[in-house]
Design brief:
The chain has 222 residues and is an alpha+beta fold. The protein is 30% helix and 18% strand. A 6-stranded antiparallel sheet has the order 6-1-5-2-7-8, sandwiched between helices. A two-stranded antiparallel ribbon has the order 3-4.
Length: 222
């Protein structure tokens, strides 16, 4: 008997399972997308992502004060698909039901076009403003400064001035969106899902996470 593991039903179940795991680490307050305008491999992307996280902390909590506050927590997902000039997005501002189709009326002009990019879902932090508008404005300014400081070479920027997108994160819509590539058979959580870790020396790392998927999710069609 031929079993096709690429059916929509199986892949939707896989997506739902990954989204449920991500939801367990919430609730989240901020959604951040960091897109590269130059092609980089996964290893380079992770190094740049770690630098971005460190600089984000310094922008948010001060050049010297960041060491005295606990680090940001949440999940980080690496996506390998190109970001095109225009792509349809879920309505992140209003949220969508888990695994609901993308609302074609919600279109966002995308920033950069590299070969991979990051999505961050970050939890609230006690040092941040309680009022949503002020907290979001501060987070946007900090993330954009941290992102545009990343360099591809001595003369080229890795992230343009439009390469960072920040919004508040209603859980269902944001979780559904950042986990969408988990529907691919080639998606392995240890290569795509990461957690922020700060060492005793103050260095930031993106530590691979693991989703307990069933073994046959990544099996080829037989």
């Amino acid at each position: 008997m031929i079993r096709d593991f690429e059916t929509e039903e199986f892949l939707d179940i896989k997506h739902n399972q990954v989204a449920d795991v991500i939801k367990q680490y919430g609730p989240y307050r901020f959604f951040v997308t960091l897109t590269f305008q130059r092609p980089v491999d996964d290893a380079s992307a992770l190094r740049h992502g770690e630098v971005f996280v460190g600089r984000l902390h310094k922008q948010l909590f001060g050049r010297y004060g960041w060491r005295s506050v606990r680090p940001l927590t949440g999940v980080v997902l690496l996506e390998r698909e190109d970001i095109k000039k225009k792509r349809r997005y879920p309505g992140l501002q209003t949220g969508v039901e888990l695994l609901a189709p993308v609302d074609v009326g919600k279109i966002l002009w995308v920033r950069d076009r590299g070969n991979c990019h990051f999505h961050f879902l970050l939890r609230d932090h006690p040092a941040l403003e309680r009022r949503p508008v002020k907290a979001l404005r501060r987070f946007q300014q900090a993330a954009r400064k941290a992102g545009t400081s990343l360099n591809y070479s001595e003369t080229e920027k890795l992230v343009s001035k439009n390469g960072v997108y920040v919004s508040l994160a209603p859980d269902k819509g944001a979780i559904n969106y950042v986990s969408k590539e988990s529907r691919y058979l080639s998606w392995w959580s240890e290569e795509r899902l990461f957690f922020i870790h700060r060492s005793q020396e103050g260095e930031f790392d993106l530590v691979p996470g693991a989703v307990p998927l069933k073994r046959w999710w990544n099996m080829p069609t037989i």
